[in-house]
Amino acid sequence: MAERSVTTPQKEHAQKTKERIKGVFSSQVLTKIGTGSTLRKSIQKSYFFVKELDDGSIEVQPLNVNYVPSGPKQVILIDEFLEKFSPEPEFYTITVMPKMRELEKTIARGDRHRKRGETFSAEMEYGNAVRVDEENVRANFGLGLTYLERGATDKAQDIFERLVKMESAYEAEHKHLFNEFGINLRKNKMIDQALDYYARALELSENDENLCYNIARVHLERKDIPKTVEMLTKALDINPEMPESIKFMDFLKSKGLVKT
After folding, report:
1. At what angle do helices 97-115 and 119-132 cross, to 10 degrees?
2. Which 3 state secondary structure label does DSSP give 75?
3. Which CATH class is domain 97-202?
4. Spatial separation of the C-alpha atoms in residues 73 and 142, rounded to whole Å
């Protein structure tokens, strides 16, 4: 008699649908508390927001106490996911999705206020978003930019310290916010913070010509010409056609700061 493969409910669901996996799933972990006669077993259930990536692997992010995805993301293989996670479609539809939508609307309102120069209203909306998800990248960037635009450097420093620890702040989807924040740090004379901020980004994206160019600008503010030339040269090595870097190098040469 031929062997039959065992199909889990999750795998059967994945096979039936052509859409990528996305939604809330739960995972259960059996924990043991105490020893001997006091030994007790407990099942701990945790919830995660799950998204299938282009390569078929699965990105998993925990939900926080406010039922929105927050914190570090983990990528696992599809087989491990199907073995360890169970779908929670009702919980996603009724509870999590509305919370995520409301958070997005709050941040969008903050963005609109900031673009109109309404910094206090923007601060209120971004602050509300951070209270729901203190690691939300867009909300933290928005709050930091609002403080910088208002000249509230002490408050901006707190946001800077939070962002510099968040790896997700330097992902491609946040690049425009990331660049804007770094430029505003420099313009507000927070030179050391701007350099630390860009150095953190360089650890995660060392072959980014725009990043090298921005670091060169910061070094020029610090009057560190050797470092300025070093980072500008690196930017041009990565992209010899970058017009901003070419103009910057020509400026340094015109001032006799670069040997020709």
Report:
1. 160
2. strand
3. mainly alpha
4. 22
**DSSP characters for 153-203?**
HHHHHHHHHHHTT-GGGGSGGGHHHHHHHHHHHHHTT-HHHHHHHHHHHHH
- Answer whether 161's CB lies under 8 Å from 147's CB: no
Report angle CA 56, 85, 30 to the nearest 5 degrees: 145
Each residue's pLDDT tens digit in the chain (260 positions)?
333 434 455 555 544 445 899 999 999 976 666 666 676 777 789 999 999 999 999 999 999 999 999 999 999 999 999 999 999 999 999 999 999 999 999 999 999 999 999 999 999 999 999 999 999 999 999 999 999 999 999 999 999 999 998 888 888 888 888 888 999 999 999 999 999 999 888 888 888 999 999 999 999 999 999 999 999 999 999 999 999 999 999 999 999 988 76
Rounded Cα distance between 168 and 73, Å, is 9
Q: How many angstroms separate the CA atoms of 78 and 58, rounded? A: 6
For residue 132, give the nearest of 110, 153, 106, 152 by alpha carbon: 106
What sign does the dihedral 236-160-105-71 (CA atoms) show? positive
First to last CA, the chain: 81
DSSP state at residue 69: B
Domains of the chain, residue spans: 14-30+41-87, 97-202, 206-260
CA torsion, ordered 167, 171, 175, 178, to nearest 10 deg: -10
Using alpha carbons, select from 186, 225, 182, 226 the residue that is nearest to residue 202.
Answer: 182
Q: Is 139 helix (H, G, I), strand (E, B) or coil?
A: helix
